[in-house]
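Q: A reviewer asked whether we had any structural model of the full assembly, not just the individual parts. We don't, so I'm hoping you can provide one. Inputs are below.
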Amino acid sequence: MKTNKKHRTGIKIYAVIAMSLLVLLIVRLTYVTIFCSDELNAAATMLHERERAVKAPRGRIITADGTVMADNKTVCTVSVIHSQIEDEEYVIDTLSRELDMSEDKVRSYVEKISSMERIKSNVSKETGDRIREYNIPGVKVDEDSKRTYPHNELASKVMGFTGADNQGIVGLEVKYDSLLAGVNGEILTLADAAGIELDDYEEKRKDPIPGNDLYISLDYNIQSYCMQAAMKTYEAKQAKSVSIIVMNPQTGELLAMVNYPEYNLNDPYTLNYDIQVSDEKEKMELLNAMWRNGVINDTYEPGSTFKVITATAGLSCGAVSLSDTYCCGGSTVVGSRTIRCHKTTGHGTQTFAQTLMNSCNPAFITWGLRTGVDNFLTYMDRLGLMSVTGVDLPGEASTIMHKKENIKELELATMSFGQSFQITPLQLMRAISCVVNGGTLITPHFGVRTIDSQGNINTLEYETTSGVITEDVSNTMKMLLKSVVSEGGGGKCYIEGYSIGGKTATSQKLPRSEHKYIASFIGFAPAENPQVMAMCIIDEPQGIYYGGTIAAPVVREVFENILPYLGIEQSEKGTQ
Amino acid sequence: MADTAHNMHNGNNRNLTPKGKFFDFSLLIIVMFLIAFGLVMLYSTSSYSAMEDYGDAAYFLKRQLLSTAIGMIIFVATIFINYHFWYKIKWFIYVASIFCVLLVLSPLGHTVKGARRWLRLGPLSLQPAEVVKVGLIIVLAAFISYSGSHMKKLKNNIVYCILAVAAAGITGIVTNNLSTAIILMGIAYIMLMIGNSKPTWLIIATVLGAVAVVAFLIWFFNNVDSASHFRFKRLLAWRDPEKYASDTGFQTLQALYALGSGGFFGKGLGQSMQKLGFIPEAQNDMVFSVICEELGLFGGICLIILFILLIWRFMVIANNAPDLFGSMLVVGVMAHISLQVILNIAVVTNVIPNTGVTLPFISYGGTSVLFLLAEMGIVLNVSRQIQVPVTVSEQAGRLRQRAHAR
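A: Here is a predicted structure for the entire assembly that you could use as a starting point for your response.
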């Protein structure tokens, strides 16, 4: 049988049909590859690309004297990639030995079938490098940056610390987080279907921008010294806590801020005292309490140190003058209440200056009542006591104060000697700075400047308000406060050769029936032109609790050491 | 009925070359190119997963090379074995190929990835479905050639259909492989359309069948939202691969991603991302998508054009074959290869639902390449027996040679 014409026609028809179908498929293929390309390519790219963040190094925190308080160190994370492991036993043996982990624990990770299993993080760089040198297939060592605090406990409540993602949690670390953090970079990698990154396809898309270094006014030596002084007092007085603040009253730069007991910044999740806590929530509460910066986060009744404000308000509005006198009989009656002086036998007749030196309560009730509610509140407000200080630390507590319409004679009387309202120690320090610096309300702060990775300096600016009180009143108050130290209740802060001003306070904590006290002293030097101001607050001291007796010597000790260090020379007048 | 290939030269044997002198070199070159290109692409496509799964990037390449080497021996042998030999042993080949399929049910049967489709003898494995394709082509070509003009008769059509349905049915059911059954039926259908000089009933049946299929599809997509059987799932995934991306539509969608990310000139040989496990077993059905990803639309079109040229050569040889048996053999091979190419590329470009048809010469599969080479050898043998007219220059040359000899 031969092929006939019909067969050949059939063959041709089929061949043409088949070839046409293939041409149509070319058209379809063109449509898909060219006209759907954008959409399909985007979908495919999404499938293949993995964006890996590259941590930006966090900025350091450096003190005025150049001590690095917060730094970064390289740590390693060791992981295993199950599918790439060749010899499980060797991997288990090596890793358990190098990482000091039990074989069973390592085995559980190694034998787990997953794309990648993290075995240990925060491994030291030396260990990480050593493991890398073994060059074991399936074992991966990734470097990472971890925050470290070289000085452990020093200024812990000021500094704060960072969390797992290097984000600030408390203190300066959180306040300046955006400046310190920098911007993470991104590496674009391609990964196969199992999610394993392809080494030769790595492409850096965005470099990380390192965080800014933060330069703070804190002085390492002053802070260290203050901490030692606080620790000594804490132990000697069995106190609940001892706080010391050192500040430049002219600028508001904080030189030291101690809240003893401090905690270890490199181990912030361990309580700084022995206690068995099983409940997570309870432990968290205790940790939060431990991290608190008492001089900023907690308020107290200032007591007698507040008489500086009462005197300033009275003098400024003209309600009282230096020539006024008061005769203290040991108590005074306000409304229907009798308020006793701490000297129950009475101070007798005193000049205005003597009432401050003696810290006479009945006298200050009189000065306060003469000043009146309006003037009193005006000066409290002008001296920044009605608002937060604006210090560059988080969680500042606000004033707890009577409503103005509720301030009657009795309330004003108690306010005059620093009771029945609450402020933070730093608020008081700021107000007194204003009183003695000639009337300029400053903003207490740590941050001085930031320097970015290119070396660009950004100086931090803070608000100041001048002319809050007159120069005259300021000079008078300096003179009066100097006499408190040289002749009055602050005598324990007197240092031969230095001119020092200051005021003591002994506040009774609420409820009064518990007889718990806060002893405090605030001092500054030189009295005529204050360059440094220090405040010591002893919370719940055992035994003697008078501020003039226990807090003033602490400030003296601090001054004895830091005045020469700060280059404040002895004045001839100081001996007068 | 014409006696010779070129009826315009009928009867004038002096102006024709002797049998065995003609050889279709262009077909040979196309086949060799496809084989070589297939091996390169196979290596490119499979090396990553071969390394992952077997620790040897050339694992699939080595196996394919071995099959190709054996295939080349068979290829050369079939070029020189007179194709009429296959006519003599048609029944043996047909029965033996079906027997091979049935052997899958015996302990020799071998299961790969849940599908029992292989025969295993020591290190060698064989996919009987590929053998049946050759067996069916030979027996049907022989039957059409034997029936000649009687192929119009109903009785012969029924016998023909029994032969085809038996082979397709047994293969499809035993190996649970619908796509092979479809290919077998497709080959038989095309050979019958061409071999039956009065295919009236076939045309009617074709139209009715097409209407039924379209009606079913319309009904299916309007009424069925979810299906449990994988074949129906594939139908659903065909219209909306995104929706079934995690499941049945996964392969199709991944293939489309590969096409789309290749663009016009592709990412370059070896640069495919989709072969890195995204397209499951990219060296099998979906190899064309990786070709397009690496070599772009340009590479894809070049490959399709090669297949078009192949079909064209088949057409020329089939039209000029010395007899109907030779012609129908070539038609069978043409049907086989063209159907698989069209269905494969249609699947990759999501024109039709996923069927699991491989791309001839390119997709991984030892049995496939071995028997394709056997088919090509048979076709080339048919081409060798064509007597082509001697051109004027050739005549002059021959005369000159004679004169010179004197």
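A: Points you may want to mention in the reply: The two ends of chain A are 142 Å apart (CA to CA). The first strand of chain A starts at residue 49 and ends at 54.
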